């Protein structure tokens, strides 16, 4: 029997009401959460103030906050239940990279619950240093900071971009989004999978693009769709270098040029419907689609789909 | 200079001078707002704890740039169309050789910083450099040898001297947070002060050249290409830093990175500095805006 007695679930995080208790120089004015959150990602640098203001305005349009943390915690809760159902009850704690609860808080909580050897679970389906490696580095730094108050990081849940549980949950979401459609209508719609764009120098050294491509191909095949497209989203507009391409706008334009009038969108690079999905796809991409005369239908992300959660639990059991 | 704008050389004041100064003011703002200058790797130093071990990875990659800047200037000096044009380059070069730094050149200062990061002298040139680091150096060799003089000047001038003080200010914040002592980070503090001087000398030199729309376009292009290479560079260094620090803590865990084509050691890269006519193809040609080549 494995010595693992807890799970540290690591995610990106999103702003929630209340001070982040991290950023110096915060205005403490209403709406400061989104500004502090974005400044923490882009760098708290006056030279990027314009970009910080632009992105935090997206959050303000969504009400000032992100549902990311709550949705990820729901995944954590579901994972705890599934582990218990499998006879391996253990605490699952979420720690985020850019918002409370921080990874240190999550580790301290696990330690307080008696955990001494925890599994590290990265909540990102595709590997690059801006996600996968960074989360693991973050976990190690948090553990080093806590010293004796931290459980040992006893194992890392292996990547799962092509695991049947993740693919099956993605396929289920595609069927859910097209419930009531005829087979002909499903097949006539263009199927686009999206993932967050990453800078080319990072993409060049990582399997990010190929893993995303594999996820999409497997999900499209399971959905019975004859053709699918990859698109990258949420790239900054002020960059001087290429990021992953093609972007969503050019893929939508190509669909329109081919005469396709209905697009089924699947944000397979994300696990929950948070700001990048709710703003960049449901608002920005939808505006582009409307201009092109395209109807956009988006499948939900996997969230706490039972197949996905069962796959995570099974992988933890192998540690 | 069969193609590209002909540098007009020093001119008297008047309308052209005013126009040049307006152009330079706008270019300075463009540099300050560029995402390379405000890159998250630097800006996060204020809020993201960084350890000496993080800066060890950072310095292993960044060191490659330190010894090569003088080579860009030396090569560009050969292309300079007039003695007047050579003056600014020569002044900066003398500074870079160490005239105002107790006769120690910048590479010597940087190695002191690297030792403080934990490097052994014998390891410094053996580091595998991220493709974006190699690409930065190759791109600049190309700019100063294969492009019109003003494109090269835009790269080593505004692209470097106007950008570095702002970028280094952020790095210094992170270094202090990591507990480095003042004498260990002298490279950054001295360099920042000297680059403010270089930037002022540069401003005067550029006023003489930036007198026509074509000349201004070439200077701006060189600056943009240099900053784009810099933005790639910071991402590359961040990539190395994250993966190596992760692997140090989780040996045996699969990293997201792998050795990519284009990695070299500094020793391999140095060979290119001495035969810049034999540069490899750009690693990421799509990222480079079209620019007239020298025939």
Highlighted features:
heterodimer; A: 319 residues; 4-stranded parallel beta sheet; B: 295 residues; mainly alpha; 64% helix
Summarize the structure.
The complex is a heterodimer of chains A (319) and B (295). Chain A has 319 residues and is α/β, with parallel strands linked by helices. Chain A contains twelve helices and eight strands.
Number of helices of chain B: 12
Mean pLDDT of chain B: 85
Measured by DSSP, the beta-strand proportion of chain A falls in 5-15%
What value does the Rg of chain B take, in angstroms?
19 Å
Helix content of chain A: 40-55%
Sketch the major β-sheet of chain B.
none
Distance between the termini of chain A: 9 Å
Give the termini separation of chain B.
9 Å
Overall description:
The complex is a heterodimer of chains A (319) and B (295). With 319 residues, chain A is α/β, with parallel strands linked by helices. Chain A has helices at residues 32-42, 49-61, 68-85, 103-112, 129-146, 164-177, 183-188, 200-203, 208-223, 248-257, 275-292, 306-317, and strands at 6-11, 92-96, 117-122, 152-156, 190-196, 229-233, 262-266, 295-299. Chain A is globular, with a radius of gyration of 20 Å. Chain B has 295 residues and is mainly alpha-helical. Helix content of chain B is 64%, strand content 0%. Chain B contains twelve helices and no strands. In chain B, helix 1 (15-33) packs parallel to helix 11 (213-249). The termini of chain B are close together. The interface between A and B is large, with 46 and 52 residues.
């Amino acid at each position: 029997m494995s010595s693992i007695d807890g799970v540290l679930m690591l995610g990106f995080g999103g702003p929630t009401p209340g001070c982040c208790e991290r950023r110096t120089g915060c205005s403490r004015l209403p709406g400061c959460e989104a500004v502090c959150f974005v400044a923490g990602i882009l760098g708290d640098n006056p030279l990027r103030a314009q970009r910080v203001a632009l992105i935090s305005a997206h959050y303000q349009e969504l009400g000032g906050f992100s549902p990311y943390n709550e949705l990820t915690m729901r995944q954590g809760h579901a994972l705890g239940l599934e582990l218990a159902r499998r006879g391996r009850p253990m605490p699952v704690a979420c720690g985020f990279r850019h918002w409370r609860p921080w990874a240190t808080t999550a580790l301290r909580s696990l330690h307080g619950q008696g955990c001494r050897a925890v599994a590290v679970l990265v909540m990102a389906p595709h590997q690059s240093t801006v996600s996968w490696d960074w989360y693991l580095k973050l976990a190690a730094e948090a553990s080093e900071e806590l010293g004796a108050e931290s459980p040992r990081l006893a194992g890392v849940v292996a990547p799962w971009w092509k695991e049947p549980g993740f693919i099956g949950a993605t396929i289920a979401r595609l069927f859910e989004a097209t419930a009531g459609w005829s087979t002909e209508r499903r097949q006539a719609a263009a199927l686009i999978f999206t993932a967050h764009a990453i800078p080319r120098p990072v993409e060049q050294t990582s399997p990010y693009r190929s893993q995303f491509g594999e996820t999409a191909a497997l999900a499209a095949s399971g959905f019975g769709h004859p053709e699918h497209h990859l698109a990258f989203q949420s790239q900054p507009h002020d960059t001087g270098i290429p990021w992953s391409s093609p972007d969503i706008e050019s893929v939508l334009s190509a669909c329109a040029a081919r005469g396709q009038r209905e697009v089924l969108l699947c944000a397979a690079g994300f696990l929950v419907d948070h700001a990048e999905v709710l703003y960049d796809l449901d608002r920005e991409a939808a505006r582009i689609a409307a201009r092109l005369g395209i109807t956009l239908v988006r499948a939900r992300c996997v969230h706490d789909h039972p197949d996905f959660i069962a796959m995570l639990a099974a992988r933890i059991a192998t540690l | 200079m069969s193609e590209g704008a002909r540098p007009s050389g020093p001119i008297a004041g008047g309308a052209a001078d005013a126009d040049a100064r307006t152009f330079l003011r706008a270019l300075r703002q463009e540099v300050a707002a560029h995402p390379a200058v405000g890159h998250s790797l630097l800006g996060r130093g204020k809020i993201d704890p960084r350890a000496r071990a993080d800066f060890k990875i950072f310095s292993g990659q960044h060191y490659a740039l330190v010894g090569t800047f003088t080579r860009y200037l030396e090569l560009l000096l050969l292309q300079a169309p007039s003695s007047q044009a050579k003056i600014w380059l020569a002044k900066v070069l003398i500074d870079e050789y160490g005239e105002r730094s107790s006769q120690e050149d910048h590479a010597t200062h940087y190695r002191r910083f690297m030792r403080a990061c934990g490097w052994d002298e014998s390891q410094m040139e053996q580091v595998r450099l991220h493709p974006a680091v190699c690409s930065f150096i190759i791109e600049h060799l190309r700019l100063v040898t294969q492009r019109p003089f003003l494109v090269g000047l835009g790269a080593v001038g505004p692209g470097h001297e106007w950008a570095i003080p702002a970028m280094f200010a952020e790095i210094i914040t992170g270094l202090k947070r990591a507990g480095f002592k003042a004498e260990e980070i002298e490279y950054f503090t001295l360099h920042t002060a000297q680059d403010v001087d270089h930037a002022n000398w540069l401003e005067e030199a550029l006023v003489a050249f930036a007198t026509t729309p074509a000349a201004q376009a070439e200077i701006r292009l060189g600056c943009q290409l240099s900053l784009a290479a810099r933005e790639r560079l910071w991402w590359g260094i961040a990539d190395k830093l994250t993966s190596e620090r992760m692997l140090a803590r989780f040996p045996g865990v699969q990293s997201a990175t792998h050795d990519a084509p284009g990695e070299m050691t500094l020793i391999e890269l140095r060979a290119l500095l001495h035969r810049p006519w034999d540069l490899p193809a750009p690693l990421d040609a799509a990222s480079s805006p079209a620019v007239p080549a020298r025939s």
